[in-house]
Each structure stands twice: as structure tokens, then as C-alpha cells.
Protein 1
Amino acid sequence: MSKKEKKNLIRIIVSLGLFLILFITDNLLEGGLSSVVDSWLLPFFLYLFVYLIIGYDVLWRAVRNIFNGQIFDENFLMCVATVGAFALAVYRGINGQETEGFDEACAVLIFYQVGEWFQSYATGKSRKSISELMDIRPDYANLLLNDGTAEKTDPSDVRVGDIILINPGEKVPLDGVVTEGASALDTKALTGESLPREVNTGSEVISGCVNLTSQIKVRVTKEFYDSTVSKILELVENASGQKSKAENFITKFAKYYTPVVCGTALLLAVIPGLITRNWSTWVYRALSFLVVSCPCALVISVPLSFFAGIGAASRYGILIKGSNYLEKFSRANIFVFDKTGTLTKGNFAVEKISPEENADEVIRLAAIAEHHSDHPIAKSIRAYYGKEIENGYTLTNVAGAGVIAEKGDNRIYCGNEKLMEMNNIPFVKENGIGTVVYVALNGRFVGSVLICDQLKTETGQVIGALNDMGCRTVMLTGDNEAIAKNVAAETGLTGYKASLLPQNKVEEVEKMLSSKKQKDVLCFVGDGINDAPVLMRSDVGIAMGGVGSDAAIEASDIVLMKDDLRGIPLAKRIAKKTMAIVFQNIIFSIVVKIAILVLSAFGIANMWLAVFGDVGVAVIAILNAMRVNTKY
Amino acid sequence: MKKNYKLENLDCANCAAKMERLIAKIDGVQTVSISFMTQRMSIEADDMRFEEIMEQVAKACRKVEPDCKIIK
């Protein structure tokens, strides 16, 4: 609660307390407060006192804004309504009628302030929840000086190549590479991932993480304004600068709503007043109108819902760049995926071993032959083997075919079909999809290893979930038809386009964009590497594993900080729920407001009901908006 | 030129919308968006007259909400 809110809360409580005392005595005393001294002046002054406590700022703002040419200002409208009610009561008092209406005027203003206070509290709270989530801005960096001591420095003064020290409990201030030490990093604020990430010498670290266990030295690779933390803060701070249709509708509605209601109020006071000559009744009804004329509840509840939606998503490491994208994404029904690195892990791994006799022997021999290669295929074989590799072999590369490893009498042949054929080794052909490595020992074939880019574990589940939501799922890939078909069948993709060159991807997306129906929303999902043009071209561009890739953050509309596809259906659920709540709020607020207007026009609703309705709508809409930010 | 500013003491959502409408009418302003939730204004205006335009923008803001300040 801010200072201002605290002050206003006390003011509300005090005036409400005083009001209740007055109100109760007024109603308990036979003949009311005015019977005490037999004059309407007593209740007038008592209520006026409360009125001024609760309403002095509203009155002041109303006066000030009139001089600024702001007529349809809610402060002004509230003043007209309440001062009008007072005036009516005074008029009655002067004419010797029973005075009523002082209490109403006070109550209207008290409840108006309650509503304002609640709005301010709710928006403040929801702002805070986002800023806490994004509490990743580093305050300082420990710059390591030449004499070996560390100095606290502003992160923006640190240059690329500088070495910084990061102690346990401190935030990583800049992106860099660990040069000394090993530790675990908490990446929760960035990715929503609760498992700490292990880092050691050579690992890249990303600003915004928190160092957990021990001190590390890091060589800075990016200046502060370029670092992940700056990019994310910029993105979050500018989110909701892009407004959704719903928000634009509501501000437009508000623009006409207030003048129309005020105009109707004027007509309501004048025309039936002239006809019936019963001025006080009709003026009173018109004043009730003014109480409902403030559109603030409507205007606040819609952006608040979007804000809560964006906040909810960011808790799961999903950054949405604006409420318009949230709105669009809730309708997204065509999902186009890049294959490598998005649906698949983008790294090669042993998929299958087809041994003549012993599978372990095949992989052991292959590991020996591929001992010193940096090729991803060699790495995947070594990773699969995972044991100490026998030393002492002489390795000979056979260009375009493979490797021959020799030690004593043993000759290991490890490579493709060509290597087997060149050495006249009969082998069993492997027809699986991917890269095949054949292994032979001393001229005898021992087996083959099938290596392929593996699907992410969650791919099938995510595609299934999207298909269940009625979406089309399409994969774009540079791989050949056979591989693409296989992947599509395995994951349940509804379509695929194979053998595409990188530049064809844009064309393909263009084609899909021009052939889709107007209400369809096309979403492209890529890992952000070389995808920027497609990400920008599609209706909603989603970049995955955005941490560390500036291009992706800039080109996309939604960034999944965690390299996990499950963020997509999750974001879709959040977007859908947000939109549902936005529509509920719009419909609910408009319907209730109109209902109150109609009821007060017919004299069924009095000012009490009007103000309860108005503030009640605001509170309910805000509470409803807060519902977006629950667990998913 | 597009710039972002933080707004202080922007207390009501409808006021933000009103300011936005007033600012959009200022000559030389190409786009303007005020977010009540993030208390930010993003404005795109002619490079040459940016300073002058910003003065008018500040005036428009004061007109709607006199307490509201544009933080540069």
C-alpha cells in the first residue's frame, strides 16, 4: 500500500465511521436529527462536515478541471450529483418538507472513494506483482581490478572482456562466460524453471540469474544495454504499449458513454420536469444518472485483465510483448513449427544400434574410432558410450567415408556405406531414418549405429494438445520427405513441408498467410536462429529458448524463455482465460450500468442503489480481472 | 523518432485514455500510446520539432491531470 493509499484509507474509515454514527442516530431518533433543534440546519451541517472530509479533493479537482476545459470529468460529475442531492435536500428543508438526501450525498461520495481506493490498490498490487517478477535488474557488478581486488561498479560501466566476480546470493549482472569456479544458478526469474542450473568453467551465464552456491569469475561478453537483462526489462516495460482491440473498444466506448449519460440526465430532469412540474423527483432521478456516468470501472478492468494475463504468463517464463498479441494468440489456430531446435533437440543422438552379435561391442569400437573427432555424430557416439575410451589407437581419416583405427592386429572400420564397400566388407544395410555409421573389425562387419536428431520429449504431447484445441500443426523442414513424414507421423502433426531451403521458409509462410481465412491466426514457432524474417511476417511469432538470443527477442511477439514447447499450450490457455475474463467484464459492466440507468429513470433505483451498483461493478470487475493471475 | 517516457501520478485509467486522445490531436504526433498499467507513454513524432511537440504534450497531460508528470 502506498502512502497515498494509506492516507485515503484512513480518510475513508474515519468518514464512514462518522457517517454511520450520524446515519444511525438520524434514523433512530423519532423525526430524525432535525427534530433535535427543530431545524434542517443541524443535519445539514453535520453531514456537510463528513461530506467535506471525504470529498474535498474531489471538489477541488472538479473545480480545477473545469478551468482546464475538462467538463465530462468524473470528479465533476460526482460533485454535480452529490451537490445536487444536497441542494435538493436544502430546497425541501426551506419549503418545510421532510429533509432527506444529505445522507445519500455523503454515502455516494464515500462509496465513490471506496471504489477509487480499491482500483488504486488493485492496480498497484498487480503492478507490483509484475515488477517483483521482473526483479532482475542488477544493482552493481563486482569488477575485478588488475591488483586482484574487486570493486562495486555500475553494470553499465563494465566493458566486454572485463572479469567480474559473482558471490553466492548475488545476481548475475551481465552476460558472460565462467572463467573460474563452479556453481549453481537460479534461473527462475527468467525462465520459471525451478531447478537450478549447474555452471562451471566455460559455461555461458545469463544476466538476471541468481548465483546460489559459490563464487564464480565471469568474463563479460556483452555490455549492459545489450545483455539479456536489459532486453527483457525493456520488453516487459514496453509490454501493453501495444493495445488490443478490446482495450481500444472500451476507451472509445468511454469517450461516448459519459457525454451520452450526462445528456440523458439533463433531458430526464428537464422534459418530465416541465410536464409534471414535479421537479425534485426528476432532478433526483437525473442525479442518480450522473452517479453511474463514470466509466472508470470499465476502462480499468480491461487493461488490468490483460496486464494480469501478461503477468501470469511471465511467471512461467513466457514473455508476451503486448496485449494485442495476447488477444491474437488466444485465437491462434495455425501453428507452423520449424523442425530443428524447435520440435527436435537440435543435437544428434544415438537412436538405434543394430549389432550382428553384441551391441555394446559395436558402440565400444565406434567410440574408439571417433575418439578425437569434434563432429556432432562422433560426439553423440561418445556420449552414448559414456565410458573410458581405450587409448593407443592410430586413427586415419578416410575423407568422405569415415575413420580407420589401428592398434596391433586390430583394425576398426567406422564410417558410411562407402567405407565398407571400399574395404570389401559385406554389411547389413540399415534403413532407419537418420545418419548410419557402420562398424567393422578386422574385415568383419559387427553392426551399425543409427544416429538422428531426437524429438524433444514433450513434442508429441504438445502437438496433441494443440490438435485437441482444434489447431492445425504444420512443420517446415530442410530434411527430406522421408524424415519429415516420419516425424509428422510420430508426433501427430497435421501437415509438413519438406526439403525447404532457409529462404523457402518465408515463401511457404507467405503462401499460408495468403491462403488462410481472415479469422485464422497463424503462429510461427522457431528457435530464433535464422528465423527472424518468418517470425516477423507471421501473425504471432514465437521464439523459443529466447534467453541469450537478442534477435529472437526483437523479432518475435512471444518469447518462451525456457526451451520447452509446453509453454505454447500453456500460453494459449492463459490467453484464452484472459480474453474470457475481458469479455465477461465488458458485458457485465455495461449490462449492470444500463440496468441501473433504466431502473433509476423509472424511479425504481435510488441513488443508494446507483452508487452501490457503480462501485460494486468496479470491484467485481477488478476481482474478476485478478482471477487471471492464478495457477495454470 | 519514437520515445518512451514514464508518467508519474497518473491515477485514473480514463484520464490516460483522455490524454492519449488529446495528444494524438497535436500536430506532428504520429502515434501515441499511454498504458495506464505500466504508467508509460510511447510517442512517435517529427524529429525536427520533437522538443516543441513534447512541450505541447506536457501541456495536454497537465490539462487532464494536473499532478501528472512526464519523467524524462
Protein 2
Amino acid sequence: MRITDSFRIRTVTENLNSSRERMTDIQEQLSTAKRINRPSDDPEAMANVLKLRTILETNHQFQRNIEDGLRILTAQETAMNDAYEILMQVKELAIEGASDSITVRESLADQLQMMLNNLVEIANTKENGKYLFGGTETMDKPFQMNENVVKFNLEGEVIDYYGNKKTFERQINENTRVTINLTGAEVFDQSDKGGSNLFQTIYDLKLDLLNDDSAAISAKIEDINDAVEQTLKNFLKIGTRKQLIVFNQDRFSTQNIQVQSSMSYLEDTDFGEAFIQFKAEENALNSALSAGARVISPSLLDFLGAV
Amino acid sequence: MGGFGIRSAFDIGRKTLRSQLAGLNVTGNNIANVNTDGYSRQEVTLKPDITIATTEGVFGTGVALDGVRRIRDQLVDRQVRTEMQTKGQNEALERVLNQIETTINEPSETGLRILISEFFDNWADLANDPENTTMRFNLREQASVMVDAFHQIDKQLRILSDDIHFELDRAVDRANALIENIANLNNKILTLEGGSKGTANDLRDQRDRDLDELSTMMDIYAFEKENGVVEVASPARTLVTANFPTTMELQVTNTDGNLRTTILDANDGEEMIINNGKINGLMQARNEIVPYYRERFDELAYNLITRVNNIHKIGVGIQGNANEIPYDNDFFTGTDATSMEISQEILADENAIAAARKVITEQDDGTVLVSGAPGDNRIALEIAELKQERVLSNGTQSLIDYLNSVVSEVGMGAKEAHDNVVNHESLINQFQNLRDSTSGVSLDEEFISLTKFQRGFQAGARVIATVNDLFETLINM
């Protein structure tokens, strides 16, 4: 085959170009620390990387949802613990009041009123600027005590409930929504379902004390026990919800680590390997340059001299 | 008598000088054109001059010039041109796909994928805090950025489509110019070769260069007729007959908001189908590839818009006055990536963003009151859930999955085009090397020729000097 000058030049140029192209690719990988800098670098790996990134973002969101839910649940828990404490005090007072004189009973009635006031305050607890026990009516005070309740004769309800019976949920993973809140009705007044109305129970006890009705007072202890049990049941409900959520929280933490590790494997530059490749290409380039120079230069002209 | 003598000896010498000089000329020409693109080396053809038969023997009369030969292999030319078509097509496709890949801008912290992901995550955050105004503000602002990203991609693709059309215009113009050139050269070559001996080497080189360039543009078949004219044809029609060229022109039509280009024969207005070459690559890009990707983004936008709206419609925001709440509350307006916008109501007041379900109460005076509970987050929850819902591709892909597969498709297309170019490169080079091997100038060879013709010239001069001496001797007898 005739080797012409343009042939030689073309061949050397091409080889140098390919070598430089390979080196540029590796250099890009080294400077961006990413093996894939555009989809066409490795379309399949890219598809997986994009999927994994979305999973990671979504997991983080679920984790935020869970934290928010936990915050509310914990606040409810605390409130209900306080309510429980109050009910225990009420019970002690009832036991005491069952066997006392009228004068002591009057002062006990006053104490009861204080406890009732406290309970109402607990029922109106706010968390993060929103009322905890109003259902989805979170911006208005859910429990308003009847102003006549301090007087002896009361007409109408002890407490008016301005909240609703709606619950709200949090999405804690791809398939699960969890109800977070207990409504005010659920916690404090289940009388429409045959359960206890905590406020009514306390108020009725107060009336009994003022009426000096020993038998009634003793009978009330049963009601108070019902109220305590209702509160404890609710307390447990919240505990269970918390458990479920926390379990998911842990699961996400583990999964996130795996996802990030997969992503790193797919898209990060393996510096060791890249450097070695770069060195190899550099050597190849140097050899090509050196050889190329020797291929192109000499011609007969160098040797003909004077004829 | 005759056949040889002093005069014929002088003559032989003279012819030698002339022919060796011719050889030097041609060699010089080759050397001068060693770096000229498309130059085919030339060789002087020498043959013995006529012989004269006499009674005393048959004598030769020296050397005769039999024209200057152009060394060219037509078969290799055809092979090179076939591969040039594919090269032109591959390169055009690679360029376009790379540009689409750049437009889509993935993977990136500012790409559409992460914006859509954030959009839905913001709804989830709103679901955690449905009473919050600031959160609504953030949601709307981020949504605006996402809408902008849709607009950007759409706009870039439209600009790309326009750019491709301009390039097509230029390419067709260039092809027309080349076709005309070839026809003109046919004419000139015919004239020149008709009136002289040998071939019109430089003109043929030019014509071959034009044919090469034309092959990168479109699929052509060129064959040389007996009279030296090259006919050029495209599968459907003849481009150059003798010296009559065809002209092509472009026409633009608008289909579904996508502009498409067709190529027509200027003579009869018929459509021309180009199957290979740069023009074919650009046509594919303009009429199929770019519209295809525009449609994908339109579909994504359409689904995002309608599905969010369908949920948002039955929700209610936290605007103050119940009487001011609109009955139908859309979040987006528009139907595709171009027309997608955030609704006017929400742009005016971020509190119009709904997290809660609508509660409709009929009042005594017959009017309808629309309200919602502040802690109700059901609409926000549902919209947030839309992120994972498989709403596209017959229920197999979520919105983000769909986008991811579009990105993947572009990546694979771009990679394939690039690989095609690279793989094809070596094939073309082989053929070009083959062509070079036949027609290229080798300086080493030419230097040898120089020496050869120089020697020949010197030898011829020696003959003349010797005969001259004989003549002197004769005269001085």
C-alpha cells in the first residue's frame, strides 16, 4: 500500500485526537468527582441514579411528616398525663369528702372548682400555635366554660365545645396514613357514646359536696374511676400511634443510608481507578506524540543533498 | 535511406529534453499540491514515438508524450461517498441529541426533576401545617420556579427546532450550489476534453470534491458516462443530467403547534425524500425527534396540571371572607408546557391555596357558603400523595418516573448517535486511506521522480551535445 503524506498526517492526527478525547473524559470525571455528568455518559446508571434521588427526597419528606406527627402526639400525651393527675386528685378529694363535715366539704368544693378550671385549661392546650383538642378547628378555643358554673345554680351545659369531631392524618410512608389527633370530644366528653364527660363528672361532684349528699358523693367515685379509665385508654391509643411512627422513622434512617451508598457507587468517580487510567492515557499520548513526530518528519529531502 | 541521421539524432535529443521537462513539470505540480484537498496525483505518460521501417532496419524516433494521466480509483470514490452519507447523517443527529440533552439539564440541582419533587414535598409540608400562610407563600413561589422550568425547556426546544430549520435551509442552499457546480463542471469538462488530448484533470478533481461534499448532504449515485459527463441521481429523481441541474427548496407546515419542514423539487413542486446524509439527519431532527420530546413534556405538564387541579378544585383556601372564596379553585391554568401557569387567584393571594376540603352550606337566603376547617389537611395530603401515584403510561409510571424515562431516552439516543459517529469514523478513515493510497502525493516518490527526470534531461542533453560534436566534426572536415 502506498503511504502518502496526507495518509500519514491523517493517521497521526486521528490517533492523537482519540487519545486526547479519552483524557478529557477522565479529566472531567476527576474534576466533577462524578462518573456520570450527562445522561449519555451512562444512560442506564443515570436512570437508576435519578430514581434513587427521588426516593431519598421522598424519604426525607416522610421523615419530616413523622417528626411533625410525633410532636403533636407527644404534646397530647403530656396534656393527658396532666388530666390524669388531676383526676387522681379529684378521686382523693371525693374519698375524703365522702366522710367529712359540711364546712370541710365547702372548701373541698372550692378546690374542685380550681381543678375544673385547670382541666379546662389543659383541654385548651396549644401546640405550635394551634389548639390540640379542637379536631380540625385548630384556630379557635375549643372549650368554653359556662360562666354560671361558679354559681350554685347552673342551667345548661358546664362546658361548650366549639371544636369538631374530625381527625387529621400524616402520611408516614408510601402506603400509610396515620390519624394523629384525638378530638376534644374523644378525650373529654364521650357522653353521647355512653362514656364519661370529665368536666360534668367533676362539676357534679362539686354540687354533691355543696349539697352535703354523702351517698351521692360515694357513688361519684365510680364515675371518677370510669373517667380515669377512659383517660388511660386514650393515653394508650396515643402511645400505640407513637410506636408505629417511630418504627417507620428508624426504617427510613436505615434505608437512606443504603440509598446513598448505592447512589455513590453508581455516580461517584472512583478516584484511584480514574487516576490510573489517566496516567495510562497520558503515557499513551506521550508515546503517540513522540512516534507521530518521527513518522511525519523525515522524507527523502533530508537525505538527497546536492545532486 | 533515411530512418536515422544527424537530424533525427538531434530530434531524438530534442524530444527527450521536452518529455523529461514535461515529467519535471508534472512532478513539480504534484509537489506543489501535496497539501491540496482532493488533489489526485498526475503522471506523465511517455511512450515510444513511431518507428520507421527502412531497408536497413526498424528505427525508433524517440519518446512521445501521451498525455498527463490522473490517478483516480472510481470504485473507492463510490465507497467513500457512501460512507460520507452515513457520516453526515450521524453527525447531524449527534449534534441535535446533545443539544436536547443539554436543554433537559439533568442531573442537576436546578433541573425539572428536583423541582417537581420539591413541589410535591411542599404540599406535604403544607399538610403538616395547613393553617400556615408563609408555607403557602413558599409553595407558590417554588411552584412558579417549576412552571418556569417547563417554559424554559419548551422554549429551548422550539428555538432548537427553528435553528434546525435554518441549518436545513443553509444545507439545501449549499446542496443546490454544489449540484449547479457539478452541472457547470460537466459542461466545462466536455468542452475541454473535446478539443484537446487527455483529461481535464483539475476540473475533474473539482467535480470529485463537489461530489464528495454533496454526499455528506444527501444520498446520491454518481456515474460517469462515456462522454465524461457525470450524472447524479438521488433515489427518487435525477439531480444532474448532462449540464442540467435540479434545484431543491424548503417548505414549512404547521402540525399541532409543531413546525415541520418538507423538501420540494423546485421544478415540479413534488416532495423529495432524502434518505441519508446531513439533510436527512436534520429532517429527522426537525420533523420527528424534537417534536417527540416536546410532546413528552407537554404530556407531563398536562397530567400535572389536570391531576393537581382535580384535587384542588374540591378544596378551599384560607382567605378571610367566606363570600370571596371562589367556587372552583384551580391551582394551575393551561394545558401544556407552553401554556402552563399558576392561576390568577393564587398569584393574587397565596391564601387561596387549598389544604382543606370544601364544606358547602346553604344559607337561608339561598346563597352558598364555602368554608373549610383550618386544621383539615386532606387536600394537601392528597396532592402530596400524587407524587408517588402511577398516573402515566397505563398506570406504570408516576410523573417523576415518566420524566426520568424521558431523560433516559435522550441519554441513550445521544450515546447511540455518538457511538455511531465514532464507530463509523474508523470505517471512513479506512476508505479515505485507500483513496489516498491510490491518488495521494507521496513526497518521497516525487523527489525520486525529480531525480529521475533530471537524469533523463541530463542524458538527453548529453545526446544533443554528442551529436553536436559529430556535426562540428563534419563541418570542419
